[in-house]
Structure formats: structure tokens, C-alpha cells
């Protein structure tokens, strides 16, 4: 596998072409942003943790029948993935009220839902990733009705699998964001990453936050939280 030119540099990862047109290499950075890029910083060691955590979790999801873009870990920060055409939707599943849900609907953080919720944002930085419903997504031709149905089904299955796994680690899965993509044959697969940058993870016993909210909210102990959540994952894998 040969790494070729950089195709894209995002906020958290760099994406490279390879000598195989169907594969990409993603390279995870320590850069952290929040509030649509307004807050910037570095979380030392984050790239290594996010790369490894995302790969372990995607491999687990594959074993449970969820198709993903994951192919092979190349190094501490680099992974080979299947190249997909990203569906421009941020798919957010929630088990407990937190973050923008709490703010938007005036619900205290920590209120547990009877059933998980799902919502979509339009993945568009200029517009600030606005919330939209499935009718809006269809009107904007972001996905077909069949694709949206598959994405919802996979997202709830991912929630069931990860909620159960994190529970064995003494961690509560509060909410998370997923991205999906299309393979050349049109099949929908889980893409991007699953990490403490994209999930809310609370210590089940103490409620301590073990995710990017420590960075967003200037709580301190950011690196320690990322290391602790990775330690729990490795212990229970
Ligand atoms: P952002 O673009 O939000 O700043 P990142 O820094 O994480 O995010 O950049 C990674 C980019 O690569 C994202 O735009 C993501 O949608 C895209 N991506 C993730 N997985 C794949 C894949 N398998 N194929 C193509 N693009 C992908
Ligand atoms: N999230 C993400 N990327 C985004 C927005 C949200 O990974 O651009 C994740 C976030 O880490 C959390 C979940 O999606 O686990 C729900 O986030 P929320 O809508 O509450 O937004 P926030 O509080 O981050 O503004």
C-alpha cells in the first residue's frame, strides 16, 4: 500500500490517496476544534487514541454485521479505509439528554430517554451543520428514501451494540455522531470515526465526562480522560 497525495485536510484528520483507487489512508491529528471551528486547541495523543479506538469499534461492528469502511490499521495514526462518497448527513443518536438537545429543548443534562432518538444535521460547514428532518434531506437530494431507511436501521443497531459494550467497561454511552458513505456499487457503509471526539461517554459510577466535552467546556484533564477511556476499551475488548 503506497501513500500518495493529500486529498483533503479536515479539522481532525488528513485524507490521502493511495495506489489503489478504491482505498484511502486517513491520518489522525491531535488538533481539536469545537463550536464550528471557533474554539481551537490540541489534545496531545488524541490522534493515536481516536485512530485505535475507531478501528477497534468498527472491527467489532463488522463482526456484528454492520458494514464499515475499515480495512487495516497502518500505524499509530494511519488507517486504510474504503473510499466512499460521503452522505452529507451527520447522524446523531441519543440515549440521554445532553449538549445541543438539552439547550434546544430546555431539558436538564442527564435525563434518560425511554427510547433512543435519532436526528440529522446537514453536513455543511458554511451553513453551520443545520438540523434537518428526513423530508428536508429528501428535498435537498442528500440521500434516497431507501438510503435513509438503511442509515436509520444501522444507526440504531450501532447504538445497541456500542451501548452494551461500553456498559461492560463501566461507561454510559450518552450520544454520538455517525457518518455514512456509498461504495461504488451503491452499498451504504459506516464511515468517518467513532471516538471520544464524536461520542459522549460518562463514567457509569461517577458520571465523570470521559470525552471531548472536557475540551469544549474547559474542564481540564482532557488528555487523562482520553487515556482513561482507551484503557477501559482495551481492558474489555
Ligand atoms: P471535517 O471534514 O469535519 O473537518 P475530518 O478532519 O475528520 O472532518 O476529516 C475527515 C473527512 O473525511 C471528513 O470530511 C469525512 O466526511 C471524510 N471521510 C471519512 N471517511 C471517509 C471515507 N471512507 N471515504 C471518503 N471520505 C471519508
Ligand atoms: N458531534 C460530533 N460532531 C459534530 C456535532 C456533534 O461528533 O459536528 C457529536 C458530539 O460529540 C456528541 C453528539 O454528536 O456526542 C451530539 O452532539 P450535540 O448535538 O449535542 O452537539 P454539541 O453539544 O457538540 O454542540
List strands and helices in order, with pairings:
Blueprint: E1 3-9, E2 13-18, E3 23-28, E4 31-34, E5 39-42, H1 46-63, E6 70-73, E7 78-82, E8 85-86, E9 89-96, H2 99-105, E10 112-122, E11 131-132, H3 134-139, H4 145-168, E12 171-182, E13 188-191, E14 199-203, H5 213-216, H6 222-236
Antiparallel strand pairs: 1-2, 2-3, 3-7, 4-5, 6-7, 8-12, 9-10, 9-12, 10-11, 12-13, 12-14
Bound molecules: adenosine-5'-diphosphate and uridine-5'-diphosphate.
Residues 90, 92, 98-101, 129, 175-177, 198-200, 212 line the site of uridine-5'-diphosphate (UDP).
Characterise the protein shown here:
The chain is α+β, with helices and mostly antiparallel strands and about 240 residues long. It has helices at about 45-65, 100-105, 135-140, 145-170, 215, 220-235; strands at about 5-10, 15-20, 25-30, 30-35, 40, 70-75, 80, 85, 90-95, 110-120, 130, 170-180, 190, 200-205. Helix content is about 30%, strand content about 35%. It is globular. The mean pLDDT is about 100. It has two domains: about 5-80, Phosphorylase Kinase, domain 1; about 85-235, 2-Layer Sandwich (D-amino Acid Aminotransferase, Chain A, domain 1), CATH 3.30.470. Uridine-5'-diphosphate (UDP) binds next to strand 9, helix 2, strand 12 and strand 14. Uridine-5'-diphosphate binds near residues 90, 99, 175 and 198.
Amino acid at each position: 500500500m503506497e501513500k500518495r497525495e493529500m486529498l483533503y485536510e479536515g479539522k481532525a484528520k488528513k485524507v490521502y490517496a493511495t495506489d489503489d483507487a478504491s482505498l484511502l489512508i486517513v491520518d489522525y491529528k491531535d488538533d481539536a476544534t469545537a463550536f464550528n471551528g471557533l474554539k481551537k486547541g490540541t489534545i496531545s495523543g488524541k490522534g493515536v487514541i481516536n485512530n485505535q479506538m475507531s478501528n477497534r469499534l468498527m472491527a467489532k461492528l463488522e463482526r456484528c454485521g454492520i458494514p464499515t469502511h475499515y480495512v487495516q490499521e497502518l500505524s499509530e495514526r494511519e488507517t486504510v479505509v474504503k473510499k466512499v462518497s460521503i452522505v452529507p448527513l451527520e447522524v446523531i443518536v441519543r440515549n440521554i439528554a445532553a449538549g445541543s438537545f438539552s439547550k434546544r429543548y430546555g431539558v436538564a443534562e442527564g435525563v434518560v430517554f425511554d427510547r433512543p432518538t435519532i436526528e440529522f444535521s446537514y453536513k455543511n460547514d458554511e451553513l453551520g451543520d443545520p438540523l434537518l428532518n428526513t423530508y428536508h434531506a429528501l428535498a435537498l437530494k442528500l440521500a434516497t428514501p431507501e438510503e435513509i431507511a438503511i442509515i436509520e436501521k444501522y444507526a440504531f443497531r450501532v447504538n445497541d451494540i456500542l451501548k452494551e459494550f461500553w456498559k461492560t467497561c463501566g461507561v454510559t454511552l450518552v450520544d454520538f455522531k455517525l457518518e455514512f458513505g456509498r461504495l461504488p456499487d451503491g452499498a451504504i457503509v459506516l464511515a468517518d470515526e467513532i471516538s471520544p471526539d464524536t461520542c459522549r461517554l460518562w463514567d457509569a459510577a461517577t458520571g465523570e465526562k470521559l470525552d471531548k466535552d472536557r475540551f469544549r467546556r474547559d474542564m481540564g484533564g482532557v488528555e487523562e480522560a482520553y487515556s482513561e477511556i482507551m484503557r477501559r476499551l482495551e481492558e474489555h475488548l
